[in-house]
Design a protein that fits this description.
Blueprint lengths: L10 H33 L2 H38 L2 H28 L1 H7 L7 H11 L3 H16 L4 H24 L4 H26 L14 H33 L3 H37 L3 H35 L7 H15 L2 H16 L3 H23 L7 H26 L1
Helix pairs in contact: 1-2, 1-7, 1-8, 1-10, 2-3, 2-5, 2-6, 2-9, 2-10, 3-6, 5-8, 6-8, 7-8, 9-14, 10-11, 10-12, 10-13, 11-12, 11-13, 12-15, 13-14, 13-15, 14-15
C-alpha cells in the first residue's frame, strides 16, 4: 500500500516526494482544457477560442464547489489518519460520498436548466454564443466524473498516496489529446467535439479511480457497519468541507465576474485572456500543489498533536514555494509571446500582444499566489477553514473592485484588470501571514 506518514521522518523530503506527483498530475489535469484551447485556437479560429475560454471560467466555478467539498473531506480523512481512527475515516468516506454525490447531481441538473441565463450573465458577445452553448452542453455532462475523480484522489492523498491519482490522470489526459485531435481535426466536430473528448476522458479517470479505491484497496473497503449516518462525523466534516467549498467557490465566482468584464472588451481580448489563463494556470499549478501537500502534512501532524513539526513544515514548504515562484515568473515573463504562439496562429498578432501583456503583469507576481495557496492549506489543516474564506474575500474582493474601477478609465483600459490580480494576492498574503504567525509561534 502506497502512503506517506508525515508525522515522522525528514520534513522536506516527504513534502517534496508527495508534491511531485501532485505537480505532474496538475499539469495533466490542466491538459484537459489546455488541449481544447490549443486545438480550437489553431484549427477553428478566434470566436470558438473565446467560447472555450469563457466556458472554462464557468466550469471552474461549478467544479470548484465540488472540489472544495472533496478537499475539505480529504482534510478530515487526513485528521482521522493522524488519529489512527480508521473506523471513523470509513464512516466519513461513506457520509461524504453520499452527500457530495447527491449535490453533484442537483448542480448538474440546475446548470442545464439555467444554461442560457449563465451565458447571458457572462456578457458573451453575440458571435460567440453559438459556440459556447455547444461547448457547454457537452462539457457539463462531465461534472459527475469530476466528482468521482476528485473524491477518490482526496481519499488516496489523505493517507499519503499521491501516485495512484496521477496514474489515472495521465491515462485520461493522453486519451483526451488523442480524441481532441480525432474529433476536431479529422472528424470536424467543431467545439462540441473538443468538449466530447474531454468528457469521455474525464469519465475514464473518474470511474477508474473510484473502482480502484473501493474494489481493489482493502483498507478503504466499506462494510455494512460503516454505512451509518454519524451526525458528529457529518458535522465535523461539514465544517471543513463547506468552508473549503465556500472559499473555492467565492474565489472562482470572483474570477467569473472578472471574465464578464473581460468579455465586454470584445472577442480579441477574450481570446487572449483564454490562452493567457491556460499558460498562467500551468505555470503556477505546482505552487497550488505545494500548498495541498503542506495541507496534508499539517493535517496529519495536527491530528497527532505535533505543533513543533508543523512550524518546521511551514519553513520548509515556504522555501520551496519561494524558489519555484521566482523561476516560474522569470520564464513566463521572458517567453510570454512565444507561449501565446502555441495557442493561436502567428497571424493573430493582436491576440498575442494582448495575451503577452497580461502574462508579463500576472506572471511577474507568482510569489503572491504561492504564499496564498500555502496559507489556504495551512488554515484547512488546523481546522480554521473560515480563515481561508476571509483570505479569499480579501483577495478576490480587491481584485473585482479594482478591476472594474481601473478599467473604467480609458487611458488604463483592460490593463486595469491585469493589475488588480497581484494587488489582491498581496493584501490577502499580508493578513494571512500576520494571523498565521500568532498561531504557530
Amino acid at each position: 500500500m502506497r502512503h506517506i506518514d508525515f508525522t515522522s521522518g525528514p520534513v522536506g523530503r516527504k513534502i517534496l516526494l508527495f508534491s511531485l506527483p501532485l505537480m505532474v498530475g496538475n499539469v495533466f489535469q490542466q491538459l484537459y482544457n489546455v488541449v481544447d484551447t490549443l486545438v480550437v485556437g489553431k484549427f477553428l479560429g478566434e470566436a470558438p477560442l473565446a467560447a472555450v475560454g469563457s466556458a472554462y471560467t464557468l466550469m471552474i466555478f461549478l467544479t470548484s464547489i465540488l472540489i472544495g467539498l472533496t478537499m475539505g473531506a480529504g482534510v478530515y480523512f487526513s485528521l482521522c489518519f493522524g488519529w489512527k481512527n480508521f473506523d471513523r475515516m470509513k464512516q466519513a468516506v461513506f457520509i461524504s460520498f453520499l452527500s457530495i454525490g447527491l449535490l453533484t447531481v442537483i448542480m448538474n441538473g440546475a446548470a442545464y436548466l439555467l444554461l442560457d441565463e449563465l451565458i447571458s450573465f457572462m456578457q458573451v458577445p453575440f458571435e460567440v454564443i453559438p459556440y459556447i452553448r455547444d461547448y457547454l452542453w457537452w462539457i457539463l455532462a462531465g461534472l459527475l466524473a469530476v466528482f468521482l475523480y476528485n473524491f477518490g484522489a482526496a481519499l488516496l492523498r489523505a493517507v499519503g498516496d499521491s501516485v495512484t491519482p496521477l496514474l489515472f490522470l495521465i491515462l485520461s489526459s493522453l486519451m483526451n489529446v488523442a480524441l481532441d485531435i480525432l474529433f476536431v481535426v479529422y472528424l470536424d466536430f467543431g467545439v462540441s467535439g473538443a468538449a466530447e473528448a474531454t468528457v469521455i476522458s474525464q469519465y475514464v479517470s473518474g470511474a477508474g479511480i473510484f473502482l480502484y479505491c473501493f474494489l481493489f484497496r482493502k483498507d478503504f473497503h466499506i462494510s455494512r457497519k460503516d454505512m451509518v449516518w454519524n451526525r458528529q462525523v457529518f458535522c465535523d466534516m461539514s465544517e471543513l468541507s463547506l468552508l473549503t467549498s465556500l472559499q473555492q467557490s467565492i474565489m472562482n465566482f470572483g474570477i467569473l465576474l472578472v471574465q464578464g468584464l473581460v468579455n465586454s472588451f470584445g472577442t480579441t481580448v477574450m481570446a487572449a485572456f483564454a490562452a493567457g489563463v491556460k499558460i498562467d494556470t500551468i505555470a503556477y499549478s505546482p505552487l497550488q500543489d505545494f500548498g495541498n501537500a503542506f495541507s496534508t502534512y499539517a493535517a496529519q501532524n495536527w491530528g497527532a498533536g505535533n505543533k513543533a513539526r508543523i512550524r518546521q513544515g511551514v519553513i520548509t514548504a515556504g522555501k520551496m514555494i519561494f524558489l519555484f515562484s521566482i523561476l516560474a515568473s522569470c520564464l513566463v515573463s521572458l517567453l510570454a509571446p512565444t507561449l501565446m504562439g502555441f495557442f493561436v496562429p502567428e497571424t493573430a498578432e493582436e491576440v498575442i500582444a494582448v495575451g503577452a501583456h497580461y502574462l508579463r503583469i500576472e506572471g511577474s507576481c507568482y510569489l503572491g499566489i504561492g504564499i496564498l495557496f500555502m496559507l489556504y492549506g495551512f488554515y484547512r489543516a488546523i481546522k480554521r477553514a473560515g480563515m481561508s474564506v476571509i483570505l479569499t474575500i480579501l483577495s478576490l474582493g480587491t481584485r473585482v473592485v479594482l478591476a472594474y474601477f481601473l478599467s473604467s478609465f480609458p487611458e488604463i483600459g483592460v490593463t486595469g484588470i491585469w493589475l488588480s490580480i497581484p494587488i489582491g494576492w498581496a493584501l490577502a498574503d499580508m493578513y494571512g501571514m500576520i494571523k498565521g504567525y500568532k498561531l504557530v509561534s
